[in-house]
Design brief:
globular, binds ligand FNR
Amino acid sequence: MTTQHVGYFVGSLAKGSINRILSKSLIRLAPDNMEFTEIPIGNLPLYSYDFDADYPPEGRALKEAIAKVDAVLFVSPEYNRSIPGALKNAIDWASRPWGQNSFARKPSAVIGASPGPIGTAVAQQSLKQVLAFCNSPLMNALEAYVHYTPEIFGSDGEVHDASTENFLRDYMREFHEFIARVLTVLPKDEL
Ligand code: FNR
């Protein structure tokens, strides 16, 4: 099996982001033939269609980063029961200019962590709706709503709980298989 290249978004700009920690756990537990590159969102200006005629370097870099990868993974907090503004801004940038939507036919998966008990479930529903509109083939199962505690997650992404570790390993294995299935019918180089 050839290596899958996955770009991942961390939906938080916070230095101590628990979703960044979760992203480290996911990378640790992913199958060996998946490679990960973070796609940064913190340097983007606020999107306006006034930029469409001449995207700034940050907007072009974002679109080029997505074009390079086989799939995208969103690891995001829930802010006020929805998608954090910085992440939505990045998605808006990548979805435009009209006709050049970077997410079209790009496989994706969504996951997130919260100290709260529902583990970003509401934000994930919003994010999945957005990705569906952006025509991204989206992994529907497994779903992963991570209830974060510092006892379970070490700062470098170590997972100190066997059932959480097994679940996250299964999640990444499922994503790997999902990407392979999508690329079978929608080969990346023919898009
Ligand atoms: C939150 N938090 C939060 N948690 C949640 O489960 N549902 C929510 O709707 C919200 N809303 C919310 C809004 C804002 C503006 C902030 C700053 C926080 C708490 C949130 O889950 C917690 O701060 C996490 O640490 C955020 O993840 P990152 O940024 O650390 O990855």
